[in-house]
């Protein structure tokens, strides 16, 4: 069974940077895509970024384009989210998700809190 563990969250001043990590269990982990979502207090979960595991293609939500970058290290079974130019509205719990088939997200991490002070 695949487990995803996020790390790297914390408190940062507006304009600062954080790098989130999501490590998956298993040496033969082969997802179709990995993605980051976030959920702010009182709001629905929203898509942040996605990466195709094999080819490395990515897409990012309009709200984070130019500031956030998703990347991966296949050998480490790890996906990253580099967050630059953080804004107070980026405050949320950030969740890592893995899709094995591309039809749905099959696995979710527990989340890591990102807080941005103005």
Could you characterize the architecture of this molecule?
This protein is an all-beta fold. It is 0% helix and 51% strand. It is built from no helices and 11 strands. It has strands at residues 4-7, 10-13, 18-24, 33-39, 46-52, 58-60, 68-73, 78-83, 92-99, 107-108, 112-117. The strands form 2 sheets. Strands 2, 4, 5, 6, 9, 10 and 11 form a 7-stranded mixed beta sheet that branches. A hairpin with a 6-residue loop joins strand 4 (33-39) and strand 5. The protein is globular, with a radius of gyration of 13 Å. The model has no long low-confidence stretch (mean pLDDT 95).
What topology does this entry show?
Layout: E1 4-7, E2 10-13, E3 18-24, E4 33-39, E5 46-52, E6 58-60, E7 68-73, E8 78-83, E9 92-99, E10 107-108, E11 112-117
Parallel strand pairs: 2-11
Antiparallel strand pairs: 1-3, 3-8, 4-5, 4-9, 5-6, 7-8, 9-10, 9-11
Q: Main attributes?
A:
single chain, 118 residues, mainly beta, seven-stranded mixed sheet, four-stranded antiparallel sheet, globular
Provide a quick synopsis of the model.
The chain is an all-beta fold and 118 residues long. The protein has no helices and 11 strands.
């Amino acid at each position: 069974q695949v487990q995803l563990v996020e790390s790297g969250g914390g408190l940062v001043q507006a304009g600062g940077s954080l790098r989130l990590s999501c490590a998956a269990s298993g040496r033969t982990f082969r997802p179709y895509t990995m993605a980051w979502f976030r959920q702010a207090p009182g709001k629905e979960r929203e898509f942040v970024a996605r990466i195709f595991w094999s080819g490395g293609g990515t897409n990012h939500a309009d709200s984070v384009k130019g500031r956030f970058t998703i990347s991966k290290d296949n050998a480490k079974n790890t996906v990253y989210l580099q967050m630059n130019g953080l804004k107070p509205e980026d405050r949320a719990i950030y969740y890592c998700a893995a899709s094995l088939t591309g039809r749905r997200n099959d696995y979710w991490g527990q989340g890591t809190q990102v807080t941005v002070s103005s």
